Amino acid sequence: MTSLLDPQARGRVILVGAGPGDPGLLTLRAVDALRQADIVVHDGLIDPRILDYAPPAAQRISVAKSRARHTLPQEAINALIIAHVRAGSIVVRLKGGDPFVFGRGGEEVEAVRAAGLRVDVVPGVSAALGCAAEAMLPLTHRDWSSAVSFVAGQCKGLSEQNWAGLAGHGRTLVIYMGVANAPAIADKLMADGVDPALPVAVLEKGTLPGQRALRTLLADLGEMVTRERVQSPAIIVVGEVVLLSDAESRLAGLARQAGALAQ
Questions:
Q1: pTM of this prediction?
Q2: Among the options 65, 187, 192, 195, which is catalytic?
Q3: 216 and 156 in one domain?
Q4: How confident is the model over 158-191, as pLDDT tens digits?
Q5: Are 56 and 111 part of one and the same domain?
Q6: Which of 43, 47, 192, 195 is catalytic?
């Protein structure tokens, strides 16, 4: 395979994971890719300091997305990338976290390869790993959890999903993009048999200025998100490992009736 640093390898896209936010969590390989970019197509939450690794002459194109607004639909992003690659450019598609963990990286790779073009992938520190580390929250632990599951909290048909077995004793569940649906997520987990007294943590803006790590019980999750005015980006961690973290307790009086695990 041609090296990412090969100046002769023109007309290609490099999917780069930018990590959870802190520029210090970029990999050396990610920095190398950015330094050779002609065009950087980036997500909206990318720290400007990360974009500074690209050459000053490189074009920077934001394709910022939010829950209610997309600058470009995914199909248009794919077309944009393909057009620039066909013109001979080195396109760095810069994505938060890791491109293949809820980042639609798989869709973009599929589109570029279907067009007969070259694509490379540079993994990044995922939001789950980076934010959990900042909160001193081990996702696995020999005494507490031997399994981890990752789910998307804004998926359609949440009530029809079967989450039974994803959270409970000896297991950790990490929920991406779940803040807006936190009450429904808590109800869903409890309906699928998860103990209402299971500890949960909400990791808000992990690795970024203003980050917070908050802890309560599953039964109180939706109310806590509202009380604390939690904003995206944030992930939700469900499991006993939450008790090992530095997350601040935000247990409401009503939730204490569900159990005593959070103390």
A1: 0.88
A2: 65
A3: yes
A4: 777 788 889 999 999 999 999 999 999 999 999 9
A5: yes
A6: 43
